[in-house]
TrEMBL record:
Residues 23-128 form the AB hydrolase-1 domain. Signal peptide: none annotated. InterPro entries: AB_hydrolase_1 (IPR000073), AB_hydrolase_fold (IPR029058), AB_hydrolase_sf (IPR050266), PcaD/CatD (IPR026968). Its EC number is 3.1.1.24. It comes from the Bacteria. Gene3D superfamilies: alpha/beta hydrolase. This is 3-oxoadipate enol-lactonase. Keywords: Hydrolase, Plasmid. The gene is pcaD. PANTHER family: MONOACYLGLYCEROL LIPASE (PTHR43798).
């Protein structure tokens, strides 16, 4: 567990180094989660790749800063962290808002990006009205007031069992995020639109979605893939919005296969 001041906040990060000659994968977590969502994916990749995880501002152990945020704020934090660690030409894997941050990083600092894995995300997520309503609700009533609705989008029905301790743990993760870090990132999603920028991406891209994703359904992720020249599109069965939790082996296998193909090109 490590910390560094980037821009106006302390960023929490962890890096697992596999060797100077190994590709680097950066994982960006989703709204209302922290870097622990990648816990079951990392062991399947860490022997062969250097792995960087971190908590975006307003989440986990990173600082709150001054919400509301923009995707540019989040992307600048990641660029600053990569510069601090002297890393470039990394494979960036972003989930949900993490995928928007990945697109924002590429738009601002393409020198840092070798390839993109855009998981359960889109070029634009939701509507301004939807996000305004969510911001108002969580700031008035707390994140717990939307817990059940969010969990129905995040996880499949078999996972959402009261006796499933892991499910309870991810419920706790959501409600324990800072309220204004959550709502501030909702504002960033509300204002983000990479529809035009997506068509200009020239690095290799893999788009992934869970078959039962209720936040960014397969057709939404497919619309992103269709915008990006030469991108790959994969569906994971038995998963919803956070496949790295429900189906980590399948998620890791797609990422590994994508990177191995990069090495052959």
């Amino acid at each position: 567990m490590q910390f560094v001041h980037i821009n106006d906040i302390a960023i929490h990060y962890d890096i697992l180094r596999a060797g100077d000659d190994r590709p680097v994968i950066v994982f960006i977590n989703s709204l209302g989660t922290d870097s622990r969502i990648w816990h079951h994916v990392l062991p399947k990749l860490a022997e062969d790749y250097t792995i960087l995880t971190y908590d975006k501002r307003g989440h986990g152990l990173s600082g709150l800063g001054n919400p509301p945020y923009s995707i540019a704020d989040h992307a600048a934090d990641l660029a600053g962290l990569l510069d601090h660690l002297q890393l470039s030409q990394v494979v960036v894997c972003g989930l949900s808002v993490g995928g928007l941050i990945a697109q924002g990083l590429y738009a601002a600092r393409p020198d840092l990006v070798k390839a993109l894995v855009l998981s359960n995300t889109a070029h634009k997520i939701g509507t301004a009205e939807m996000w305004a309503a969510r911001i108002a609700t969580v700031e008035e009533k707390g994140i717990g007031s939307i817990l059940d609705a969010i969990m129905e989008r995040w996880f499949t029905e078999p996972f959402r069992k009261p006796e499933n301790a892991a499910y309870q743990g991810y419920c706790h993760m959501l409600v324990r995020q800072p309220t204004f870090g959550y709502s501030g990132t909702c504002a960033a999603i509300r204002d983000a639109d990479f529809t035009e920028a997506a068509s200009k991406i020239t690095v290799p891209v893999l788009c992934i979605v869970g078959r039962e994703d209720g936040s960014t359904p397969p057709e939404v992720v497919k619309s992103l893939a269709d915008l990006i020249p030469g991108s790959r599109y994969e569906i994971i069965e038995g998963a919803a919005h956070i496949p790295c939790v429900e189906t980590p082996a399948a998620h890791a296998a797609l990422i590994r296969g994508f990177i191995e193909q990069l090495d052959k090109e």
